[in-house]
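A quick aside before the break. I want you to see a complete sequence-to-structure record at least once, exactly as it would be stored in a machine-readable document. Don't worry about memorizing anything.
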Amino acid sequence: MKSKEFVVAGATIALVTYALALSLVGPVLSAVQTSRTVSNTGTVKAIGVGVYWDNQCTNPLSSINWGTLEPGSSTNVTCYIRNEGNSPSNLSMTKSNWNPPNASNYITLNWNYGGQIINPSGVIQVTFTLAVSASIQGITSFSFDITIIGSG
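That is the input. The structure line, written in tokens, reads:
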């Protein structure tokens, strides 16, 4: 009789241990399997330069729809910037008007502009890269403005 009680007690302990393990591992697995998408539409402003979709500078770029992004992902947009002033220029870029304001803590925008001088009517190709942090939380959509300034 004691042998049966020992087997039942052992089986009960094993079952309780299994249930406890599932209750601890379950939330971890579900956290790994969840995903969140983030969408955006950004406005592009230009001062002293023109920003275009094509290298012929016939199709102006005034906004970028980055589409739907997953946490931890990035996407690129290529455009063409023309110096529309009458003197050689360098470019600078600012980002502003983040909505929601904390989006800039999780989302970064970079470009591959290398600081080269752009002569009047000169055109360069630039690629913007938008990256969303894997740790983004509480943001399901966002927007911001990009301002590109030619100075020289």
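Two observations worth writing down. Residues 6-12, 14-35 have pLDDT under 50 and may be disordered. The two ends are 95 Å apart (CA to CA). We'll return to this after the break.
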